[in-house]
Amino acid sequence: MRLLVLGGTHFLGRHVVDAARAAGHDVATLTRGVSGEPPDGVRAFHADRDDPLPAEVLAWAPELVVDTSCQTRAAAEHATALDPAGYAFVSSLNAYRGWPPGPLRGEDEPTWDTDDDEYGPVKAHAERVLGGALRDRFLTARAGLVVGPFDPLHRLGWWLDRIAAGGPVVVPDALDQPIALVDARDLAGWLVQVCGQRSGAVNATGPAGMTTLGGLLDTCREVTGGDAEWVVVPEADLLAAGVQPWQHLPLWLPADVARTAWDVDTGRARELGLPSRPVRDSVADTWVWMQTHPRPEPPPGRTLPGLPADLEETLLRT
Ligand SMILES: NC(=O)c1ccc[n+]([C@@H]2O[C@H](COP(=O)([O-])OP(=O)(O)OC[C@H]3O[C@@H](n4cnc5c(N)ncnc54)[C@H](OP(=O)(O)O)[C@@H]3O)[C@@H](O)[C@H]2O)c1
User: Fold this and answer.
1) Is the CB of 298 inside a 6 Å radius of any atom of ligand 1?
2) Which of 181, 214, 236, 263 is least surrounded by CB atoms within 10 angstroms?
3) What's the CATH number where 307 sits?
4) Model confidence at 296, in pLDDT bands (50, 70, 90)?
């Protein structure tokens, strides 16, 4: 079928393009052409998503649309103009009004209903307008933590770099904290598979408790080799020193938030066949990618995560 990826040249979208080609679809992307171009054999349309769709996109008449782009202002207008048989949208758990901190018992929990120009409300707004326009042709994948090769947010990547550098590594005293993640390649393949076949909302992340923070860091050490040693710092000391959860120590949340934030019911995702490859494969493949590609540029307006050197020194001294 003709499958249009709205996005498709950066991270998740790039894997959607690969998965759609592997599934035998005729694939096109729609981007501004700033983040790069899709591989040979993929039609590249260019436009800003806030502008009307180019006539050649409408003329190509995609039958399926996978929307990984964060640009959602004109989403409903475009969806109506394209009128596809299936539309899969990449949303986020942040679309839920109560997450974080959660927990999320299923997909019926309330989503944001405000017009705020913030990540969660924007995703929820897009879901509402797209769902209104497309009805049972619309699936929204509320993604959790996405990892894998080409990840520009460099969260797992920072840990891999730091652990590979070896020596004493500051880690929070939350190593038994359960965490869940979804490999971008699993999510991408599944989006292609369910687009046009299934509808509604799906919490699209790994099963709760699939690993722990400590398990993930141990896997990073195994994969990178080296002599990294954990220097376990109590949460109160990290916070007192000014360590920002998630930003300075990626994937770490304070215990009171973590208890519920990682508690996400993904039963529907499992029923609909969203795979969850072994964490080791995601870690190892991300590390291979990092050895063969330059470190990513942070997306506009964002800083790459990581523990500032002065903070690390202070924490290791105490
Ligand atoms: N990473 C996570 O942990 C996480 C968690 C939950 C949800 N998500 C969601 O997952 C999705 C992942 O995105 P991704 O970056 O991996 O997708 P992607 O499709 O690989 O990259 C984003 C694409 O959007 C295009 N784009 C950006 N601004 C545009 C504009 N104004 N008009 C047209 N195209 C535009 C970019 O190309 P150009 O720059 O060339 O235009 C690029 O191709 C996002 O929707 C994000 O909210 C991520």
Assistant:
1) no
2) 236
3) 3.90.25
4) confident
